[in-house]
């Protein structure tokens, strides 16, 4: 049942990404955030290991969120996504940047 909910969530995020209007150059959208962190969902819900695609998504998102407004938007989107995924271990999630050797310009 939990795996089905996770699959539905990821499918909804993919639809959201596909249906969004193109963002302004350099803008961070919730679709971009969702697709970037989707590979991390099994890890942060203790259903799987940390995978390379999760680290790649975190690196990509960190690069895209290079301005203060973009970081705020990414943070807002992450909070929204986290609120819709049951069973997130926030300690594990907060440790992903360090495990992926990504330096964030702000604390998690």
CATH architectural designation of the domain at 27-99: Orthogonal Bundle
- The CATH class designation of the domain at 27-99 is Mainly Alpha
What gap, in angstroms, lies between the N and C termini? 30 Å
Tally of helical runs: 6
CATH superfamily of the domain at 27-99: Plant lipid-transfer and hydrophobic proteins
The CATH topology of the domain at 27-99 is what?
A: Hydrophobic Seed Protein
Radius of gyration: 13 Å
How much is the average pLDDT? Answer: 83
Judged by helices, strands and strand pairing, the structural class is mainly alpha
Strand content: under 5%
Beta strands, count: 0
The helix content is 55-70%
Task: List SSEs in N-to-C order.
Answer: HHHHHH
Shape type? globular
Q: List low-pLDDT spans.
A: 8-23
How would you sum up the major sheet?
none
InterPro entries: Bifun_inhib/LTP/seed_sf (IPR036312), Bifunc_inhib/LTP/seed_store (IPR016140), Plant_nsLTP (IPR000528)
GO biological process, one term: lipid transport
GO molecular function: lipid binding
Keywords: Disulfide bond, Lipid-binding, Signal, Transport
């Amino acid at each position: 049942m939990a795996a089905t909910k996770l699959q539905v969530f990821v499918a909804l995020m993919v639809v959201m990404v596909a249906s969004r209007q193109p963002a302004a150059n350099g803008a961070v959208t919730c679709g971009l955030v969702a697709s970037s962190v989707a590979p991390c969902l099994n890890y942060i819900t203790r259903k799987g290991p940390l995978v390379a695609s999760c680290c790649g998504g975190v690196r990509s998102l960190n690069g895209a969120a290079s301005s203060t407004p973009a970081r705020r938007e990414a943070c807002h989107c992450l909070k929204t996504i986290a609120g819709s995924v049951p069973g997130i271990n926030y300690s594990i999630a907060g440790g992903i940047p360090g495990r992926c050797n990504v330096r964030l310009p702000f604390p998690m």
